[in-house]
Amino acid sequence: MKKLLVALLVLAAASYGFAGGGGQQSSGGGVTKGMDRKIVMGYSQIGAESEWRTACTNSVKAAAEEYNVELIFSDAQQRQENQMQAIRSFIRQKVDIIGFTPVVETGWDAILQEIKDAGIPVICVDRQVTLAAGKRQEDYITAFIGSNMITEAQKAVQWVVNYMKTTGNSKKKDDGKTVINIAILEGTTGSGAQVGRTEGWNQEIAKYPNYKTIFRQTGNFTRAEGQQVMEAWMKSPQANDIDVLFAQNDDMAIGAIDAINAAGKKPGTDIIIVSIDAVKGAFDAMLRKELNATIECNPLLGPQVMDTAVKILNKQPITWWVESVEGQFDWTNAEAAYPSRQY
Ligand code: GYE
Fold first, then answer.
1. Could you give all domains of the chain from N- to C-terminal order, each with its CATH number?
2. What pTM, to 2 d.p., does this model score?
3. Ligand 1 atom with the shortest distance to the CA of 101
4. What is the torsional sign of CA 110, 114, 119, 122?
5. Whose CA is closest to atom 1 on ligand 1?
């Protein structure tokens, strides 16, 4: 009997630990807004790699409070296996609904089947998944909430081409023939954000054959790695050839700006820089005239996540994906927009 008790305790501790990994649980009375009971959501976030991610996490936690949803929040520290452990623990705990941001697109087939078999609805937040050939994510994921990564990057191309044609950098303008050399800092390899933004950029830039990519490397969506990679490029013999830097998020652009300054070049003038997200740090860099433009990607997804969860659990109709509506900012409108920015 004693042995059995000990074994049970160990099991309970282990499953609680899996839910953890930096997890936290909020409880309390009352019912969830829009429901006749209080619901439990297991939520697997990928980490805290960027200003964007922190804003997203804060938004989800605040919305859970507002809706009175019991949130079991787990931080995966960028590791897919940690996400799997957390999700399996959510299944064991029989949560009402699961929310998660897949760190990379592939490798989710088995666990999504497990969630489906358990009859738990799942909301995919910010990044999408790619399943094995022939399978549709709509058959495994109840709703997706996030941005269109492809169109964001297409907007970045349009901004760059327009700026290079009308203004240019300190060395050249785009006359349709002059070669414009690009360096690209990519996000986490294999993540929905990296895959989509690379695809959108490649498709759109192909329309302008005088734009050539001379550097392309991942900076994992972090400032530190954006800076390191740019530092290496600034030391290479081709450093002087870089006309444009496209960073797949603001944090990497901000890190790269430090490296460009350290190399004695003027970011925003010698090298035109465009990134994606529109976080506060990007606005600061635009006001310093070091970052030229940022394409907005809205991280404040919490209210939409909770609202959708309630609708799903109430068996109300939902739209599988309502794309976020987003703007873009540069030196012409950043200052006016700054005071009303929320992240
Ligand atoms: O742009 C970046 C973050 O997946 C859209 O991930 C998200 C991206 C965002 O770390 O800053």
1. 2-146+299-325 (3.40.50.2300), 149-297 (3.40.50.2300)
2. 0.91
3. 4
4. negative
5. 249
